[in-house]
Amino acid sequence: MGALLDHFRATGALYGGNAAFIEDLYERFLRDPEAVPPMWRERFAEWGRAQAGEIAHGPVREAFLRSMQQPVPSPPGPGAVRPALAAGAAAKQAAVLRLINAYRYRGHQVAELDPLHLREKPHVPDLDPSYHNLGAADLDRTFHTGSLCAPDRMTLREILALVKETYCGVVGSEYMHITSTQPKRWIQKRIEGYRSRPELATDDRRWLLTLLTAAEAFERYLHTRYVGQKRFSLEGAEALIPLIDELIQRAGSQGQKEIVIGMAHRGRLNLLTNILGKPPRDLFDEFEDRVEKTWHELAGDVKYHMGFATDIDTPGGFVHVVVGFNPSHLEIIGPVVEGSVRARQRRRLDRIGQQVLPVLIHGDAAVAGQGVVSETLQLSQTRGFSTGGTLHVVVNNQIGFTTSHPLDTRSTFYCTDVAKMVQAPVFHVNGDDPEAVIFVTRLALDYRNRFNKDVFIDLVCYRRLGHNEADEPAVTQPMMYQKIRARPTARDLYARRLIDEGLLTHAENERLLEDYVASLEQGVVASRAVLCQLDNPYKVDWRGCRGPGWEDPISTAVTVEQLRDLAARMLRVPEGFALHPRVAKIWAEREKMASGEQLLNWGFAENLAYATLLDAGIPVRLSGQDSGRGTFFHRHAVIHDQDTGASYTPLQHLGAAQGSFVAIDSILSEEAVLAFEYGYATAEPNTLTLWEAQFGDFANGAQVVIDQFITSAGTKWDLCCGLVMLLPHGLEGQGAEHSSARLERFLQLSAERNIRVCVPTTPAQIFHLLRRQMLGRERKPLIVMTPKSLLRHRLAVSTLDELATGDFQFVIDEVDPLGPEQVTRVILCSGKVYYDLIEARRARGLTDVAVIRVEQLYPFPRQAFTAAIGRYPAATQAIWCQEEAQNQGAWDQIKHRLHALTPEGLPVYYVGRPVSAAPAVGHRVVHVEQQERLIDEALSGRINPNMNRRIPL
């Protein structure tokens, strides 16, 4: 580059062979003017930028034309430079280069992508030579090809044939939106060098027909045997089966050891059987509702939601392939897969994603319509969530759901336009040309593994049947289905092609079909010959975490000496590290807490819990929108040098043998990030995985993840997960959107010991709770209502001894020295309201009112609760007091348990806010008035009859 710049500086000459070089410089200038030498920065600034509707490099090419009309002196020194073109020839040469680039940018718009030819192709004037002042007389003239992957000089006729075959055939490539030159040049070399066609040996082509046969015959067999049953057929998109087969084989040959696939229901049964080798007899049992005895204990799910895992032989060895369980919320599986992949990569120390590959299979309407797709793409290149690039396959039925018109499914030209937000290339391919499908599969996988970035394959096909097998699509799509019913299948088309080329006989073609159907009749695997379940050291192993035992006695205590030692290590900062003054004050306070001079607050106890686990070799992963510091300025797991901006994470520097610790400030997403962490937690049993909402209310944005995975995956699919959700909760006059973590929703979703819901009220409680999550024998999702104001409340403190002894307490009895025989009223509560109650009781000098905290609301601690309330035989009134509205909080979900477990003759009444459609009021003065009233009613025993009409039962 230096020699050329010197030459340009001396001569100012531009000629055809240097067009690509100058365009590269211009691209750099557009991204960052400071990235090019001053001479070129000034020149490009004079030329200006492209206007709307112009080709991106229009200004540089116009200047290029002007310059080429001047004579070109020879450069100084030895060697010679090609003589200058005449003005007319220069103009023609520049026009040819513009034409080549037009095909790169827009050739995909007129490519032969749609097997059905449903819509008229748009007119793209840039692709017409006449648009660039090139005519018939120029077709046989020779031109420089610039950066085209071709001989240096070709006739215009040859150039047109090359770019049309490459960019306007059955493959349409979108990649010119990528700002980096290197991946663009790499793609150009691959597609222009091969003209978007694969080189397949005869045996490979026959195997391709075998896979198409399996894909088609499988669906037809099920359609005949199980008439009218839903299976969400793949018919019309059979090329997906050879695509995934090629993907697995090539990935294995390139060193991939695991592939995790996320897909919705369409084609799932076909893929499970024909690729992963799920025994057909097992599938038939599902169709016929023959359930194994062990599955009687589970709710189960429909067959097209079920996952599967196996090991497939490839040229590079066995590859473990997993298809994730997925509900009908189609795209929600994407971030779950990404989280699972990240955990598997961490386990293999696969830092750039060369051993574990995520593959997401989308539908055309879903990839365009569901926001979690873009949220997941936004995660793809962030530090805490990257998986080294995902290979996306869009099964583009061109219809979305049956009744939709394409104009109603999206606003973008392509369903895959969402890919451009992360500059992912998109390779559109005609699904009825299986060889082209193989070409783009190889291209996409190689791109992903070369650049560790996302890449999309848009498999343009159709749906031969309706949305499901009982549907009649012609009712709303008559013209489309006239074409579909008249069209031979992809298998028939490819078989005819091989027969015409003499590679297959009619008899062999018929035998392929007969052999496959016979294998199905016998219930045997019809996929690749070598399939097995291997035991390997990297597999996900939940043994030891399934047994009951959450309520079993367990020691989560840590000696005072250990705590002080860990605190000292945790409070060390690098020499010269400039703490923010407020953080320095917190550090000084924590030193006093460690020495016993000051009681522990929540933030320090939480960090100590992490430190003790890390010291035992247990990794910790914490993510959320402000998890490093903590939304409420309490955690400070990550600190920042005020002079340099450098960050430091003390919990990563406890000792050489410690577990890994990461605190990730995530993107502003709940749905994708929580789903990612759920996926991570399912694949990493031995890591404490936590997700923290900025405010507990914000979990609303991830309700699909909570409903379909966290609370139900265990009973639907027998999946284990130890994810912890930290949800700041408490009514403090901050309005409806910053008060409630919707405790009632989690309790409503609680059944069959599926999750644990806890509301700890002291630093010691959160310390023991987090440790119990990893040290116990039963690992279930843990939902924690965490505090806000209590983080600094003068009463919400603990001693070091409370961390050094005991365990998490499911119920905390009265802490003041009241005589049990004097207590006539027992107040039951959970969470922040406890501190309001005891402060008011102490201020009033009441000695006949005891306050009991229920710290675990599900599974309800029957034994601990019964023991606590049984200590007050003189009590004549029990009150459940909560600050949430009556139709929210815990009351409606636990009142039946309270009535059942209180002693006979002891009625239980409700005291709290009345029913409300909103979680909290928006005016602080109203909030304070309501809070004071409910505290007064609880302590005085004045019961509002309107809130207790049905009590006692």
Automatic annotation (TrEMBL):
InterPro entries xrefs: 2-oxogl_dehyd_N (IPR032106), 2oxoglutarate_DH_E1 (IPR011603), DH_E1 (IPR001017), KGD_C_sf (IPR042179), ODO-1/KGD_C (IPR031717), THDP-binding (IPR029061), Transketolase-like_Pyr-bd (IPR005475)
- Names of the cofactor(s): thiamine diphosphate
What is a single molecular function from GO for this protein?
oxoglutarate dehydrogenase (succinyl-transferring) activity
Q: Which UniProt keywords apply?
A: Oxidoreductase, Thiamine pyrophosphate
Give the similarity note: Belongs to the alpha-ketoglutarate dehydrogenase family.
Q: What does this protein do?
A: E1 component of the 2-oxoglutarate dehydrogenase (OGDH) complex which catalyzes the decarboxylation of 2-oxoglutarate, the first step in the conversion of 2-oxoglutarate to succinyl-CoA and CO(2).
Name of the protein in its database record: oxoglutarate dehydrogenase (succinyl-transferring)
- Name its species: Thioalkalicoccus limnaeus
